[in-house]
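JOB MANIFEST
job_type = single_chain_structure
chain_count = 1
residues = 151
[input]
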Amino acid sequence: MDKRPCVSRNSHLSLGQRSARLVVPQLTSNDPGGSAYLHSKRLLSQYVHALSAELAPRGIRANVVHPTNCNTDMLQSEPMYKSFRPDLEHPTQADAEPVFYVQQAMKVPWIEPIDISNAVLWLASDEARYVTGMQVRVDAGGYLKWYDYHN
């Protein structure tokens, strides 16, 4: 039996006879700090909670990964710099980077894509075979900084 993970277009991973549904929030608008983004993440959290409860009896897991600022082309772009530094007409990475630290409780401006990939790989692995309904925050403590425990 082939033991390599197989990823389809709809983010369904299967490994042998086990499978896991992975949902990773993505930015879908030009307003990364806007209320639409905030509400979509909250709705996704509620959806995965309900979905995991429904699918757990069938042995199907559902989890969501919540990353913080991630060192990608999307973050390292003038529109994103502008969203963090609206006071400047053409902000640069050097202008925006000090403000990126505000998002996280840990003293980092962003995380790397590999940090998110490792969390997703763990969720898809046998080591996480009983993990379902989780809100996995790969956010350098960002959630801790902005929300109290029960939000």
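[summary]
Helices lie at 35-55, 78-84, 93-100, 113-124, 142-146.
The CA atoms of residues 6 and 83 lie 37 Å apart.
exit_status = 0
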